[in-house]
Amino acid sequence: MSNLKKDSLFAGSVKDAAAGGLVALALFGMMIGMQADVATGLGGQLGINYRWGAVAIAVVIVFAGRLLLNLFVWKSDKPVTRTVGSLLPKASSFSGLGRFATPVFLVLAVVLPFLLTYFLGTRGSRQYLDLAILVTTYVMLGWGLNIVVGLAGLLDLGYVAFYAVGAYSYALLAQYFGFSFWVCLPLAGILAAFWGIILGFPVLRLRGDYLAIVTLAFGEIIRVVLLNWYDFTGGPDGLSNIPRPSFFGLDFERGEGNFADFFGLEYNSIHRIIFLYYVILAMALVTNLVTMRLRKLPIGRAWEALREDEIACRSLGINTTNTKLTAFALGAMFGGFAGSFFATRQGFISPESFTFMESAVILAIVVLGGLGSQIGVVIAAVVMIGGFEFFRGLEEYRMLVFGLLMVVIMVWRPRGLISVRTPSISLSGKAKGISADLVQEGHG
Amino acid sequence: MSTSQPMLDIQNVVTHYGKIVALRGVDMTVNAGEIVTLIGANGAGKSTLMMTICGSPQATSGRILYNGEDITGMPTHEIMRKSIAQSPEGRRIFPRMSVMENLIMGAETANNPDTDESLKRVFDLFPRLKERQNQRGGTLSGGEQQMLAIARALMSRPKLLLLDEPSLGLAPLIVKQIFDAIRDLNQSDGLTVFLVEQNAYHALKLAHRGYVMVNGTITMSGTGKDLLAREDVKAAYLEGGAH
Predict the structure, then answer these.
(1) Does the pTM exceed 0.80?
(2) Number of inter-chain CB pairs under 8 A, A vs B
């Protein structure tokens, strides 16, 4: 009996795999098998290279893959995936992660430059410090966007616009008025917040997909304006010679009266990198602190309630207009801060740095980390931005690996890495985290 | 407050959804200390009337007076801060927030800052919510969610409570519990209640006065007892409803 079943299982699987192979043959026969090329033997004419070997390999891969999937996963009584799934850490084991991860991450972030310079020397640590600055910038952007998307539930695909506003605010103010970084930083934040409100007004009535499209368009408008307003922004040439930040008036240059000289150190360009790292780290931590604090205040609860149910919010007397606008403005403000930091670090900005791809990466960090989770954003930023650099050795396969990684994470943890939400208030003072495992995907 | 003036006075209110007329001149009053119910078939305009009181959608003509003040053109959030609270249709609790957070949301815009006292009151009224205070709103049963929706509305210490179909989709025993709680609130606290219901039998039994709405107009009104006894009401709304 069981033998018979096995036979029919095998025959069925082979049949199914053969069908898959045929489809692959039909598809790949053209796509892989015939390559339009400037044929060398034909004196530079356009010709076709036939690559039947490659087609055969592709078809065999499809056939074998489908056969194996049939035998061990889809038709098997004991799918391999279940066995593998039980080997993966349970989703619930991450619940307590946030509590331990936070102090560990914090300490690590603070001592990182010293660890790196100690172990790798000043020369070797430079690229890692640069990467750390980049990751921290994205952490800050992720936290800023988290206010809009994670807390208030307003899907914003044009967040990079505020990043651009911040960067250009600083660069232009420095160029036209000679303001320093520390003067421009708050101004850039205010200007970005102002643009956040400008964007907020027309989209107040929109939700979900419609809101996403309008914010996407807004991001593009800002970029296109920057690109075409040549007299003011330099257009595609960008703005260069953006001044570097000083340490309480001490510049990071060689010579007397500068940072190294003042502290009696030998001049080293790594000083500025370390300084920049601490600046962005402090800015990111301020973003986090403000967000965490706001979450416990009425405005933060109103954001979360707005994400859950707008009509209920209105019936409770919450002014949804103001609630949405504050979320947009605050999120934009932190984007603006990060933008002016970006400008001062790079020393050069152009509209190319503020494409839709940037918005997508920031949004991916927020979603991957778990909407609304602060520590999740950190982990996701490290994985995404760090991973991006880490897989550099794989060259063109990098995007493939990267995409696969994202798919795997989203299948494994559909609500993001950290999907536990801690209530902001409770009577007993020991509110437990509310796991999102009980919620259907895409709801609530 | 003068007794001659009704708490809620709805005068010839017309409401449109785009070009479609939903309310065709509704007149209704709710006096302080009363439970008034509005019954009617699906699509009669009951919920529209309740939402019009709340200012979303706003009435195209007519006036709505609350304690003598014209609230017809006010934005929703301002109306809801005038000691009026609403428990909307379909409960609409915040599913991912805890029971406690849901309740606090209700007190957020209240004039009365004594949240602890309000919490104690709603926990006395619905002890089940106290047990579940740290649970996520979305994990509650339907009946508990309805209790939470009412409790959340009560957190702002309203003078007037608007309830839209609190019995929707609930078992008879739970409906009885909830209606008992409403009666309790009315008798002990003097809370004025305006109740929109499909469950005509229970609603009319509970209410001091009732209105029947058909196609966007009020066709009958009277005390709850009178309406319950009327043959036409029985035929239209109570067949099979009165056990």
Answers:
(1) yes
(2) 107
